[in-house]
UniProtKB/TrEMBL annotation:
Protein name, entry field: Protein kinase domain-containing protein
InterPro entries named among the record's database cross-references: CK1_Ser-Thr_kinase (IPR050235), Kinase-like_dom_sf (IPR011009), Protein_kinase_ATP_BS (IPR017441)
Family: Belongs to the protein kinase superfamily. CK1 Ser/Thr protein kinase family. Casein kinase I subfamily.
Residues engaged in binding ATP: K104
Superkingdom of the organism of origin: Eukaryota
GO molecular function, a single term: ATP binding
Keyword tags: ATP-binding, Nucleotide-binding
Organism: Aegilops tauschii subsp. strangulata
Amino acid sequence: VPVIDLDPDQPFEVLPGAAVGGGPQRIEEFAGKAVKMDGVSPDKIGGGEDDASPVPEKVQVGHSPQYKVERKLGKGGFGQVYVGRRVSGGTERTGPDAYEVALKFEHRNSKGCNYGPPYEWQVYSSLNGCYGVPWVHYKGRQGDYYVLVMDILGPSLWDVWNSLGQT
Ligand SMILES: Nc1ncnc2c1ncn2[C@@H]1O[C@H](COP(=O)(O)OP(=O)(O)OP(=O)(O)O)[C@@H](O)[C@H]1O
């Protein structure tokens, strides 16, 4: 049985201005360990609820180009996904030089980020290159959000079924 190594493979970069600050601080206990928390409860924020801080208008993480954040593609249990359009350059449809990407935002107070970057990042790293899984090209933190920059996929079967009135 192949063993998948879920250790993080790359450090991520915290951009200037991304400092955690302000807001009341609390101590919460997870798995018997005291964890210092900032601001509101992660449980209340979940998958980027509307009361969380708005996602940024522009994104640049790690060594990525800059992207303008456009329409929302969807929302999951932990994060929200938007179209990102490269501000300049970008000739490819997919890959690190793509002119359009999917940007997945996960709020730093969300339940997936209790111990730092989302655990899901390790899963994406392990699955990168697998058929049907979008390639992640850049990742990092900007302001209150952890951001993944990945290939944009076509509509899911769920999206297609709904666009046809679930017939
Ligand atoms: N790379 C992508 N390209 C295009 N659309 C995407 C991409 N990634 C996510 N989406 C859209 O955003 C939605 C939310 O994705 P996300 O990964 O946050 O959650 P999920 O996998 O649907 O659910 P859960 O978080 O419960 O596992 C998806 O259902 C899909 O419609």
